[in-house]
Amino acid sequence: MKFAVLDFETTGTQSADDIIQVGLAIIDHDNSISRVYGSYVNPGRPIPPFITGLTGITDDDVKDAPALEEMMMELVPMLDDVVLVGHNVAFDFNFLQNALDRCGYLPFTGRILDTMDFLKIMFPSLSSYQLGFVSSEFGLTHDRPHQADSDALATAEVFLKCLDELHALPLITIQRLSDLFAEEDSDLGWFLDGVRENKEHDPIQDLEGHQFFRQLALKVEDWTELAAPRREDDPNPLAGVSFEEYMDDVRDNLRSSLSQYEEREAQTQMIEGVNQALSEDKHLLIEAGTGTGKSLGYLLPSLYHSVKNGQRVMVSTHTINLQEQLRERDIPMLTKVIPFPFRAAIFKGRGHYLCLRKFEHKINRRDFATPKEDLITAAQMIVWLTLTETGDDEELNLSNRGGDFWETVASDSESCLGRSCPWFRKCFYHRARHEAGIADVVITNHSKLFTDVKASHQLLPSYEHLVIDEAHHLEEVAGKHLGMHMKYFTLVHTLTRLFKDSKNGQLPSLRQQLAKSGHEKSTDWASTIDQMYPLVLEVKETWDLLSDKLFGMLPERSDATPGETGQFSSRLKPSAKPAKWDQAAALENQVYVTLSEILRKGDKLMLDVKEEHDDYAADSLITDITGLLKDLAGIRESLRFFMRMDDETTVYWLEASGQFRSKSLQFYAVPVDVSRQLKEMFFDKKRSIILTSATLSVDKSFQYMTDQLGLQEAADQGRLMTTQLPSPFNYRDQVLLVIPRDFPSVKGSVGDEHFVDMLVSSLGATAQATRGRMLVLFTSYRMLRQVYEPLKEALASSDITVLGQGVDSGSRSKLTRRFQEAKASVLLGTSSFWEGVDIPGKALTCLAIVRLPFQPPNHPLLEAKSELLQQQKKNPFMKLSVPQAVIRFKQGFGRLVRTASDHGVVIVYDTRVIESYYGKHFLYSLPGPKMEHMPTEQMVPRIAEWLQSAPETEA
To answer: Is 823 annotated as a binding residue?
Structure first.
């Protein structure tokens, strides 16, 4: 088989556009790259500047190049009897057919393969399938991205890497892949079929390294084989070992295994503080800035405490990302330096683990909602099973629709067969649960912590000691979990899984199974299922009407990004319901009544079939359907709770985005004050809780957090310790904070003309002085929009790119990556960029904060909390708005300095920090940068001078 790997560079993406360069790499029968052909093509018209920017190809490059007809005379003979390969091949194929047609050749009728499909299937965990990224991951030299010959060669090498990976798979996996595509008339299916035939003729099959079960190859053995880290009859490795001796050992090992290890004063203090809190059964609030090394700061004493006393320590992080970071980076390092065997387990919410029973069922029944995409996702997962040890969805890079596919195969408690499931010993969720049960330290996340509390502690192994990382998010997560949060699709997805239409879905599948069984009652059962379908349609129609009506009650917020869930938002007050609330309540009542009818019929049917009918395939469906009916009952009650709005201690609100309108509706009902519940559930019950984050104090005091989290009583009883660690960085030498004291002020979320002009001119001049490398944080999307175009224009001649969140497409991480890769760029971001964005080194030299990050006063939760404080005769602005904004401001400030060698400038354009009575709280809460205020015109020379003085910078 001979492959031709093709790549075109073109003047655009439409069929009327022209080819400006072609690259072709030929892969011979022996899988060697025998030829790489490349040529410019003269398109006979100017190349758009955007394309020159992307590819580096200029009008000069193509002016003496062959015309399309000449190039095609060379190219066409090379396409004889080959399989055509490309990266996103549809694009190149489309241009090829057009060119063949324009030059009078017959169309290409051979087989076509896409390296994108191969990469997704063979490397299901790669974080991006972009050619440049993949090449560098595989260690291939791809020297000129977006140049056709270089792209074609890189694609050919990537394709060969995929083929090696494919041929190395166990035979059973290749057979499953080939079966999966067998019914599709696709070139990928034809190719996999060929690979299978070859593999079946191979006399030696490698059966090592995988477990084979029910026609799937798995990487892991039964979880029942997982042993505890130490044998029960072994002596305790820490018997008679003091904490100081243990730490001396660890430090010696750190020195010998990490050449760049240096002891940090802040980390040492943190280790000692955490150890003291754990051993004295106290709670601890500990603020540890960037660079402290806080994961080791709490993991080292936690492991000592856990192993020494045989008491498990639970660690909770806010994001799954941080959980992953601990898994990938910190735990492997600890394994090297801790002088005895231990186990630290990662345990997430159940929906993150694959349910093998559901997956087997889905691929056997070919239950695919969007076949083209679902087949690739199913293939990805069949290969992933030969690689994964956790079955955790974070390891998978799923396409847009992949998330919907995952929902149908994720583990969930309602449809779990437990010990009677044939997959029980292989089950990923039970593996994680068992591992947590035998671990010394369990790392979970805030969401799971609260789900466990709501499930009366049935989900997590028992614990008395808890470390909460990123603790400044605890209150918000508590509110969401202790309250109610539901989306438009929460109901729709559940209904769709019961009935996709009258022929497809879980209930129609059950109907077919029962009909096949020939059971005497199967006609009655089928008739019950048929009666349920119109009821489901009726619920869906009424739900759509209700969602439209509720969306119609929402005003648009001016400061949110378009498409953001909070773009439309409205608080609903029990005492002042909106005008047409009665009509909405009547629709909700209809939903309630019809759902009750579906549940009555469904529950009776499930009981009946279960008693009378015995068959594994039907059992599996009955379990899933019973689970879906339970979900529906929960949704019905949540919706009723929301629409009744009769709880005075709860704040109710709706949010939606303008992009998907009523389909993006979200319902919130959150307790106004969770401090009492946190106190009762955690601080009163647990022996020791350590709360840490880079931002817990306001004005060097922990009072705000103590109030918010319900720790006042513990403080009064002397059970609360607080520590603010010194910063490991020398902020005075590393950061200059500048305030232009004559800068105009602005009210509301929109800037007036004078303010916007001043801001654009100052940002433009500063960006030229810092050569881009600048992050600008806004509190309102509308103001970001006002600045984006004029700033782009102002910087166009300086070759500095401007990227804007919500204006330029892409997620936060994509924009951050583009910003880091660009030579000189300015990134404008709103809410989500204030926190969690990590841009170390010289890519970020200047951070501009346009306004102090106060939450809009009309945000439903803030409004309700303020009302509560007023009733208590407290000042909501000073007690709530200022501390919240200070914590956010510190988070924003923290984006600039990520390592000890970072050096840069922070500009605060909001003069309230020096003019208002509360401004000092912001400045005083920072970790001691050099602060100066001056007239705006003196700012740029001062910034340039400061950057010049930086150690070995190329300013």
So the answer is: no
